[in-house]
């Protein structure tokens, strides 16, 4: 089976402010939040394809106890985060 890339190869820069190894959930989240902080000279390197490693083989779900006040706040914040990510993805595409 041949991997089909969904993105173009880019020439590497001579240097980056940050290089992230792995395009899984943690690597991409790190890159996302760095750009939110204004650090935009970031490279994410992935051997195969996005989500190939551990992130592609688990549910990547973090659950909290929704019956506690803290759990409800955590759930509400998580929902807002995902709604914002969805809206941002529509702008990019």
Can you give a write-up of this model?
With 93 residues, the protein is mainly α. It folds into two domains: 15-60, no CATH class; 62-93. The protein is built from two helices and two strands. The chain has helices spanning 25-36, 69-92, and strands spanning 18-21, 42-45. The protein has a two-stranded parallel ribbon with strand order 1-2. It is globular. The two termini are 28 Å apart. 2% of the residues are buried.
Unreliable stretches, pLDDT < 50, 5 or more residues? none
Radius of gyration: 16 Å
- Outline, from the CA principal axes? globular
Distance between the termini: 28 Å
Strand content is: 5-15%
Q: Output the number of helix runs.
A: 2
Pairing-aware structural class of the strands and helices? mainly alpha
Number of domains: 2
- Could you report the average pLDDT, rounded to the nearest whole number? 81
């Amino acid at each position: 089976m041949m991997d089909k890339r969904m993105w173009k190869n880019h020439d590497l820069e001579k240097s980056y402010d940050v290089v992230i190894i792995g395009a899984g959930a943690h690597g991409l989240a790190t890159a996302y939040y760095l750009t939110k902080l204004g650090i935009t000279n970031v490279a994410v390197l992935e051997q195969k394809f996005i989500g190939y490693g551990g992130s592609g083989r688990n549910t990547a779900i973090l659950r909290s106890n929704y019956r506690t006040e803290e759990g409800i706040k955590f759930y509400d914040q998580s929902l807002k985060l995902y709604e914002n990510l969805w809206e941002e993805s529509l702008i990019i595409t």
